[in-house]
């Protein structure tokens, strides 16, 4: 069955049958100066962002190794208690059809606002799964698909963590993003309950020089693997894992709250010492004047007193890969939500990182950051989730089709 053959009445019956069944039982590497992974296609300078279309079908899903869009929403859902293997397949049938339509500017068959779908704005929808969904599909759960270990700096809140199904939506238009999110969540509501939604943004106007500047003023995501070349194995899952995941990836999503009220009181020199990079250019503090964020840090450099120029607790040093495999693709977004009581803001970073094996690649780096990172004085992880990112859907395939092989 192809993704574009699902008609209105048949589609409604598709999910209604599943809902009825459920109700019967229970009513660090090389830098990329343009902000993209090395090998990602550049954005044409004369392209119209409103009508730009990114490919849906292929070996890999979009929204991973392509250039990050300005706006993002991460939505996690839980399967209803008695959704079985057949119902999970129906879920992916509907998702495949709706996502392909939305990404190409065609409205889903139940969409009563088709004009909103016409503005594609570079929309990508990336689908990930948690261990419970994989188990219900009857497939093998990879060993790394589990919550991360508890780190000493964590103050994890359940409302920002976990989930059976993830939809990562990214676009150049917040309206396009909101419409796609609404349509997809409404379509699969008979089978799922919404667990959380986290929305983020990136600066679209600073230019090609900086990958991203977060709300602490730090140039973020400066070190990226060469995912289109020799580092592809750091991003894409291969034959060493379950067959259904070949060509897929893993996503670690960490919600990191920034205490900007106290960061505001820190002088610029102390900020750069904590980060290990200059705030204006993102260059390491060991780099010569005029250097950019792509400059290589000299971790051995010392000052006249014999102290490391890059502080032993600087974020750059603690996050630096100690082994070739301790690298992953960073695709972060800032968030700025309504202030909490007693604070002027609830702001921070949605740290989205893609890799082949979180336990091998991410956990050692996160442990070093937890042990001794000066930025821990102003940042706190409050949300954490790990998802297996499905391979792309080739012509005639459903997303996740190999889960049911």
Explain this structure to me?
This protein has 405 residues and is α+β, with helices and mostly antiparallel strands. The chain has a domain at 16-146 and 161-211 and 394-404: Apc35880, domain 1 (Alpha-Beta Plaits), CATH 3.30.70.1030. Helices cover 24% and strands 18% of the residues. The chain is built from eleven helices and eleven strands. The chain has helices at residues 8-26, 85-103, 114-117, 131-136, 174-188, 232-235, 260-263, 268-275, 315-319, 358-361, 363-371, and strands at residues 30-31, 71-79, 124-129, 165-171, 192-201, 223-224, 249-258, 329-330, 333-337, 346-355, 379-389. Strands 2, 3, 4, 5, 7, 8, 9, 10 and 11 form a nine-stranded antiparallel β-sheet that branches. A two-stranded antiparallel ribbon has the order 1-6. A hairpin with an 8-residue loop joins β9 and β10. α1 packs antiparallel against α2 and α2 runs antiparallel to α5 (174-188). The longest helix has 19 residues, at 8-26. It is globular, with a radius of gyration of 21 Å. It starts with 7 loop residues before the first helix and ends in a 16-residue tail after the last strand.
């Amino acid at each position: 069955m192809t993704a574009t053959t699902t008609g209105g009445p048949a589609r409604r019956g598709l999910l209604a049958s599943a809902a009825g069944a459920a109700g019967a039982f229970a009513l660090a590497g090389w830098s990329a100066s343009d902000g993209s992974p090395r090998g990602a296609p550049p954005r044409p300078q004369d392209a119209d962002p409103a009508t730009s279309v990114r490919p849906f079908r292929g070996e890999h899903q979009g929204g991973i190794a392509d250039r990050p869009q300005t706006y993002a929403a991460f939505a996690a859902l839980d399967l209803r208690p008695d959704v079985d293997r057949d119902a999970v397949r129906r879920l992916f049938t509907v998702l495949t059809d709706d996502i392909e339509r939305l990404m190409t500017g065609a409205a889903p068959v139940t969409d009563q606002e088709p004009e909103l779908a016409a503005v594609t704005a570079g929309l990508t929808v990336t689908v990930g799964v948690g261990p419970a969904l994989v188990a219900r599909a009857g497939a093998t759960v990879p060993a790394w698909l589990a919550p991360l270990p508890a780190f000493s700096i964590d103050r994890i809140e359940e409302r920002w963590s976990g989930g059976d199904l993830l939809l990562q939506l990214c676009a150049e238009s917040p309206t396009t993003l909101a419409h796609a999110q609404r349509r997809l969540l409404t379509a699969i509501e008979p089978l799922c309950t919404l667990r959380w939604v986290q929305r983020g943004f990136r600066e679209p106007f600073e230019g090609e020089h900086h990958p991203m500047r977060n709300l602490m003023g730090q140039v973020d995501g400066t070190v990226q693997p060469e995912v289109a070349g020799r580092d592809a194995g750091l991003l894409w899952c291969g034959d060493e894992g379950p067959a259904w995941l070949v060509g897929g990836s893993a996503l670690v999503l960490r919600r990191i709250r920034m205490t900007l009220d106290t960061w505001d009181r820190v002088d610029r020199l102390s900020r750069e010492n904590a980060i290990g990079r200059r705030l204006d250019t993102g260059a390491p503090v060991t780099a010569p004047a005029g250097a950019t964020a792509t400059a290589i840090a000299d971790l051995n450099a010392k000052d006249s007193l014999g102290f490391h120029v890059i502080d032993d607790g600087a974020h750059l040093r603690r996050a630096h890969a100690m082994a070739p495999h301790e690298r992953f693709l960073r695709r972060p977004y800032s968030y700025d939500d309504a202030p909490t009581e007693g604070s002027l803001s609830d702001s921070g970073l949605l740290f989205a990182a893609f890799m082949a094996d979180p336990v091998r690649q991410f956990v050692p780096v996160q442990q070093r950051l937890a042990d001794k990172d000066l930025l821990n004085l102003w940042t706190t992880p409050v949300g954490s989730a790990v998802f297996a990112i499905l391979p792309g859907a080739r012509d005639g395939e459903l997303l996740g089709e190999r889960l049911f092989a």
